[in-house]
Amino acid sequence: MQNPSAHESTGLQSQPPPEEQNYGATEAHERQGPFVSVSRNRPAKRGYLTVGVLCYANLINFMDWFIVPGESLFPLSKEKENSRQFYLFLTFILCYMVAAPFFGYLGDRYNRKIILGAGIFFWSAVTLGTSFISESYHWMFFLSRGLVGIGTASYSTVAPTIIADQFDEGKRTTMLSVFYICIPVGSGLGYVLASSMANVTGDWHWAFRVSYSLSLMGLSLAAEKPGVQRSAKTTWWQDVISLGKNCSFVWSTLGLTAMAFVTGALGMWVPMFLYRAQVVQGTVSPCAEKSCNSSNSLIFGGITIGTGILGVVAGAEAARRLRKINNRGDPLICATSMFVSALCLFIALMMAQRSITSTFIFIALGELFLSANWAVVTDILLYVVTPRRQSTAIALQILVSHLLGDAGSPYLVGAVSEFSWSFRSLQYSFIICVFVGVIGGGFFLLTSFYVEDDRKEAEKKGQITIPPYGRKSCVLTFLDAFDCESKIAAELAYGSPPSICKTGMSILWSWGAPEGRV
Questions:
Q1: Topology classification of domain 44-228+242-461
Q2: Which Pfam families does this chain map to (predicted)?
Q3: What distance, in Å, lies between the first and last C-alpha atoms of the chain?
Q4: Confidence (pTM)
Q5: Distances in Å between the alpha carbon of 100 and those of 276, 373, 404?
Q6: What are the extents of the domains in the chain?
Q7: What is the pLDDT of residue 249?
Q8: Which neighbouring-strand residues pair with 144?
């Protein structure tokens, strides 16, 4: 009869089989640390239902964001139109990015379902209150935008980690792509809703009332059972220091910041830019009304929806295929998308004075390649950062990308264009976005130099620790015998071994083994 400990020694120290050694999305959560207690036996439909609810809430969230740039809400003098409209957006972004680190800390340590549900309820209630603010109390509207930003921060920091816990391997990339499709789609719907409600009812308040009604459905998440309870053992400052040493996280965050810079400027000023281009071409007449670009907002919203869906899906699929032949495929996809997007935006700016149709086409192409990066950037974060720091990492990424990105880009573009209320001034100000897009592509190229080493380091820190001498343990590694990219979930259990071993399950027993790792 063989000695159990001898058998165990060879099993525990052996390297994983070739089919387990995948990259990118297939590696992100194969080994969870002792801080995770999660069962992967949950019904698959529950995971898909959770993702569906998260996607719906994300859609309504971004739709609410872009109601403001989709329609001028208060009478503004033409001379101050650019900067004043931006202040509402700035108020939201500042509160959003300041609150994000706090909720990231909570998300790594407490029940994320409660954090998520409370956040959705809070910003939904504030949105409803916004719809009753009269124009004479515009300062209250600024306050409400800030409160919505706080509620949104609680949602945005934990939702991607919930998706990561529900799915492993390539399925996570697919689910993240579906989740991030809601960003451009929700943004486009915000433009459409703002313009439609203003035209149909003559009152912009109804756009927020409709948004509130739709957001109530997102509260159905409260009925979903929490799947993962995290309990990080480090302080927030230790997490920040560790993330600062993660080169892939740092460079990809700066690349995302460049994306946010360009996206924020485009979302705020493209409808106005298109209107001014049409005035220069003589296709429309200058107007003195407070909103002269409703049709452009509607068209731009439709472009944002279409290119967003196609871009996110295409980017995720391209990354999935490229990582099979190149372990650095994800950041290379992001870099290429940024370079091509910057080129398309530059061509659109140069063509605007001569052909509005060509301008629409190249703006659409620019947004298409920008949208290709949303899911891929998050996927990079999820496999180069250990699970116990992921909510904090997402929160810091939100803080940096908004602080240096879309919190300032709309103001900068608007400030440059205000030197002269003309098409040419806004055209020149958009050139800034072209340069930032190229710089963002460079950041993603730098990410590609570090992504492999950081991924391996994250895997090492996320491995399961075998208990010290004198304790019996059982490590169950669930292997799908028919899938070369099998899902691996490991649970540490104490007590007597089970009497039944099912097909497709590899069981490793430890009888008083020294402390080691699987």
A1: Growth Hormone; Chain: A; (1.20.1250)
A2: MFS_1 (PF07690)
A3: 25
A4: 0.70
A5: 36, 21, 15
A6: 4-28+464-511, 44-228+242-461
A7: 96
A8: none
